[in-house]
Each structure stands twice: as structure tokens, then as C-alpha cells.
Amino acid sequence: MDDNQIITPFKYKKSMQIPDRLGSIPDFEYVMFLISKGAIREREIEILEMLKKYRFLTTSQIRRLLGLEEYDRKLKKKLDMLQKNRIVFRFSWTIDEKPSVMKGFCLDILGYKILNDYFGENFEWKMEDNLKPMETVFNHFMFNEIVIRAKESQNYVESFITDKHIGTGTIIMESKNGKKPYIILSLRKSDKWENKFKERLGDIVSFLSNGWQSFYESKPVFIILGEDKEHITAVAQIIIDMSGSIDTSARLGIKYTTDDFIMQYPLTEAFANIDLMDGELIINRVIAKVFE
Asked: Which end of the chain has the smaller Cβ count within 10 Å, N or C?
């Protein structure tokens, strides 16, 4: 199948979000009642822990993280119950090329209280986190998609969303030389995305030159994830224009991939080199020894 024919659900468009109507917030004592009568059990808590860690997950991603192979009616009922009781927040969006509606989830106020107050996990959360722009939400979805696929490798160690430096999230893999970090920077083609990336490029170069040493024992593999080939070509052009060299990406160790590549190929086959030939940037998908 041609890469351009792949339909992925996280390509940015304006006004895509369909927020669910917010119900009233039940008393926390009612949630304790649900726990005491067994309506909220280990599986429900496991879902809350996932949302705490990865922030935004689709129904499909939750299902796969739980180890369920296909659509599960019981999972749907659990998510409906959690959403109805303001334990998780649900939002939806449509895909132009498909008649279906996609659904995503994050923690809601009582989900936070269950983990923070009842289980004493003591973490920061704000209700306005649920109102982040879809650009940010989709970036999280795509990072989490890579996480789910990386978890299939026997070398997977850990993964987490990061706010401390330049990436969307980090995946730690075991390598022959110890633990290897993979930092994924997910980009969406939102309004003025080029300007936003240009503003970050200086920090990216500084981080990949020597700033990484404050965070990791070995230099991370830095992966720029764009929506499609056109997108990562534009990213590469920005790097060339601002650095004056086609070799900058290679020197800094930047790798490229797209939503389409991630959805279509195994992770070891989902990366590309961007080369300059006859004055034109050419994308060549390569077999890369990453996430093995």
C-alpha cells in the first residue's frame, strides 16, 4: 500500500474535538461506595494508573495496554461507568476519511482523587489539563502508540511523558552497552507549527550537543515524528535553513519517522533518512537497529 493511502487518526485539523457533556461531580463518598461494592476493581485502577502515566489514551490503546486482543464489551462498560462518574474524562473526534468517531480518555477529578487521596500517590494534576489543545493530545497519542509497539520488544525497560526538556516522551530500552534512551518529539501540522519548531530548534541542538548529559548516562537517540512525508521533509528543510548544513541532522543523531510509518511497519523498519539529491530532499526509509 502506498504510504499516502494510510489513514491515521491523529492528523491535526481545526475544531476536531467533540467534548462530552460534563456531568455533576459525585461526592467522593459515592466513589468509595463504588469501590466497596466492587464496581471499581483492579482493572479500573489499572486504567487510572495508565492515564496517570501516559495522560491521554485512546480506547484502542487502553485495550492493547491491558493485553486485550480485540474489541471488548466489558472494557467499554467499564470506561462508560468511569466517565459517567467523573473518574475519567472522555472526548471524541471525527476522521474525515472515515465515518467512525474516535474516543480518547484522560483522568477526571475523581480519578485523580482515587489515586492521590485514596491510594496516597501524591502527584500533581489540574482539571485544565483536560482542556489542552488537540495538537498536544495527538502528540501524546502518537508517542503512546510508539510505546505500545516498543513494549513488544524484550529489550523494553520503561517509558514516560517528559516535560523537562525537548521531547514529547522518552522510552528506555536495554542495549548491549546498557540502558539506551529514545526521545520522541512528536509534531503536528497545527497553525504556525514551523515557527514553533524554529523557536525550539536552538534548545534541541544544545540538548543533543551536550545538554543530554544532565539527564542521561548515554546520548539519547532523538526521533522527530511528523504526520507524513511532507511534514518531516519540511522539518528537515527548517533544520538545514537554520544551520546551513545538510549534515546537521546526521551529526546530531536525529532520526525521522511519520505516523504512517509507525502504523504500517514494525518499529525497526519505521525510520527514514532524508538526503539531498540534485537540490531536492529525498526520504529513504531504512532498516534501523532501534527498539530491538
From this structure: N
Identify any residues that bridge with 179 across adjacent strands, giving them in sequence order: 174
Contact between 198 and 205 under an 8 Å Cβ cutoff? The reply is no
Rounded Cα distance, 156 and 147, in Å: 9
- What is the DSSP secondary structure assignment for residue 156, as one 8-state letter? E
What DSSP string describes 5-69?
G---TT---TT-EEEPPP-----HHHHHHHHHTTSS-HHHHHHHHHHHHHS-EEHHHHHHHTT--
CA 281 to chain centre: 27
User: In the structure grid, which three cell numbers stand for residue 139, read together?
Assistant: 502528540
Q: Is the pLDDT of residue 165 over 50?
A: yes
Instruction: Give pLDDT tens digits for 201-228.
Output: 999 999 999 889 988 888 999 999 999 9
pLDDT in tens, 100-156: 678 899 999 999 999 999 999 999 898 887 878 888 899 999 999 999 999 999 999
Helix and strand numbers (H, E) in the chain are 10, 11
